[in-house]
Amino acid sequence: MNNQKQQKPTLTGQRFKTRKRDEKERFDPTQFQESIVQGLNQTGTDLEAVAKFLDASGAKLDYRRYAETLFDILVAGGMLAPGGTLSDDMTRTEFCLFTAQEDLETMQAYAQVFNKLIRRYKYLEKGFEEEIKKLLLFLKGFTESERNKLAMLTGILLANGSISASILSSLYNENLVKEGVSAAFAVKLFKSWINEKDINSVAGSLRKVGMDNRLMELFPANKRSCEHFSKYFTDAGLKELSDFARNQQSIGARKELQKELQEMMSRGDPQKEIITFTREEMKKAGLSEQGMIGIIWTSVMSCVEWNKKEELVTEQAIKHLKQYSPLLKAFTSQGLSELSLLLKIQEYCYDNIHFMKAFQKIVVLLYKADVLSEEAILKWYSETHVAKGKSVFLEQMKKFVEWLKNAEEESESDEEEAD
To answer: Is 165 within a domain?
Structure first.
């Protein structure tokens, strides 16, 4: 028996060369730029021909690798150096966005070129959005006319959903804001955006990416007020944007006020202090009593942990609301405020299923505490109730409403006898 270990076979021969496709290609946009510039020089100002050229070139040229170069050329005519100046040592074209006519129609035609290109080569989507963000940071390096064209184009692209409103974050750059570049650019941008869509569509896009509450940041800190914003954009012919920003500011103020009230209630602050504080804040924010009672109701109902059992939550709610009835009473001095409160109670009891059976008891308690008048309850019952849980709540209130009506009739009868 051979005790010697058998040698394992070994492979000998020539080592294979690395395949060409596995070698890391050097980033060199020169040839790519020359091909694009040459094509644009041939197509000239015919944007239909430009779109066809770009469509066909994507099959031969590496758009994925040189996306930034491609977009730089289409916008500025050549590759951009940091800050927004054109690179000296590169070929450039005179046929680009920045040399086009400064009007909305031309910018809409350019937007179509970009839309067709990105629809055809979906992988360019992200790179295009990054390009727009970069271009906005370079605004100081462009002429006023170039900025105007870029602003109009950006507004159109935002309107048709080619880019997200998150690109606006570039406009909050400190240097652009400080020199007034951001605000001036925003005027042109929003005008073209609203021209394509309406303010509701613009508002929806801003909300989607959390930009709806950041518009004030287009101005330096010392000018960041609702009044300044409103005057600037109203004077520029964008009153609808001013109104939207004012409304957003008001919503923000209401949320802050509601949060503060909840904290005061949770701490057990005296109601006199809460009432004084609320009146001051109401005046500051320019809120009506109707708007205020809704905030107070939400705060009162949010500052407690509710029992999950239906039979126990009613008792808990009555006890809690009895405690806060002086606060509710202080802000229901008008009939419209009482109706606003009734609608808030109806919506709350409908949205929180454990409270469905508590509605009538809450209304009766607030009637007895002089928060709600019989006129308001009867008007709510006959006219102003909303659809939420309507049949359930009207049925609950039927007997009490009949009692109110009878009491009213008896009172009228007594008055007639007295006369």
So the answer is: yes
